[in-house]
Amino acid sequence: MRALVVYESMYGNTRVVASQVADGLRATHEVSLVPVARATADLVTGADLLVVGGPTHMHGLSSPRTRRTAVQAAAKEGSGLSLDPDATGPGVHDLLKGIGRGHGLAAAFDTRISAAGAAFTGRASRGIGRLLKRHGYRLIAAPESFLVTAQSTLLDGEAARARRWGAALGVIAASIDLPASA
Question: Fewer CB within 10 A of the end CB, N or C, for the chain?
Answer without folding.
Answer: C
